[in-house]
Here is the input.
Amino acid sequence: MVREWNAGTFLSVSSAYWHGCALQAGVRLELFTVLADRMSTLSEIAGKTQTDRRGMEYLLNALSAMGLLIKEDDSYRNSAAALDFLCKDSPRYLGHILLHHHHILDGWAQLDVAVKTGAPVSRRSYGTEIERESFLMGMLNLAMAIAPDIAGRIELKGRKHLLDLGGGPGTYAIHFCLANPDLRAAIFDRPTTKPFAQKTVAGFGLAERIDFLGGDFNTDPILGGPYDVAWLSHILHSNGPAECREMIRKVLAVMEPGGLVLIHDFILDNTKDAPEFAALFSLNMLINNPQGRTYSEEEITRMLRENGVKEIERFPFRGPNSSSIICAKI
Here is the structure.
C-alpha cells in the first residue's frame, strides 16, 4: 500500500522518533517494571525510579497519551500491552531490543553524514557489555516471537544435524530441536556469545542436543558437521556481497548431499524499493556497518546458484517486520 503524503504525514513521520525516545526512556528507567500490575501515584513512581518529579510527570503523561499507560487522577498503571511486553518478568518482554534501538539512535541522527561518506558514523558508547547484552537478548526477544511458528512449518523430518550459523542465543536451534525430537544442532558463533547461548539452551533442557562451537564464520572454517540442514538467520545483511558468497561456500562445504539451506533475512523485492522495513534496514547497516546491507531475492538466488545450488524456492512465510525465508536444496 502506498502511503498518502500530506502535511500531516510529513510531520508525523519526521517526529516519529519522539514516540520511540519516550518509549525507550520508560524502558531504560524500568518504569513499566516498577508499575507492574499496580496503580501508583506520581510521587510513588518518581521515588521508586529516583527521577525528578516534574520530568517523570511529563513522561507519564506522554506515555498515557500514547496508550501505554492508563491515567486516573494523579495515578498511573500499565496498559495490557505494556504489562505484556514491557515488564521484565513477562515472557514476552521486548525491552532488550528497544534498548538496542536506543543505543543506535545517535547513529541514525547522523544518517546524512553516512550517506555522504558511505561509511559508518561514530556514536556514543553505553559500554561494550551493555550493548552486547541488549543486542543478543534483543535478538532472543524477537526470535522467540516467531521461532515456534517457523519450526512448526518447516519440514525437517528425517534430518539429523542442524547448523545454526551466527545463531547467537540459539533460539532457532532450540525450537527446531523442540519440533524435531531426533534432531541435534550446533550453534556456530563468536566465543563471546557462548555464555548467552549456553544459558538459553540449558533453560530449555537441551544442553545434551545442542552444542556451541566458537569461531568467526568470516575468517574461520565452519566447525562440526557434516550437517543436513543449515539455518542462516539475519547474518547476510551484516556482510558485503563477497563475504556473503564466501559464507555460503563455507556452509555448502560442510553440508551432506541433499542438505537443506534456509536463509532468513529482511529480503528485498527485486526492485529493491520494498518491503519498506527491508529498505530502511539497509540504512541501518550503512550507519553501523562498513559493508552490510539488505539483499534482494534475485541477489541471494544468484549467490546460491554461483555455488552450484539449483533447487531454490521462497518459503511462504512473512515475519512481523517483513522477514522472509529462501530455501535451497543441495
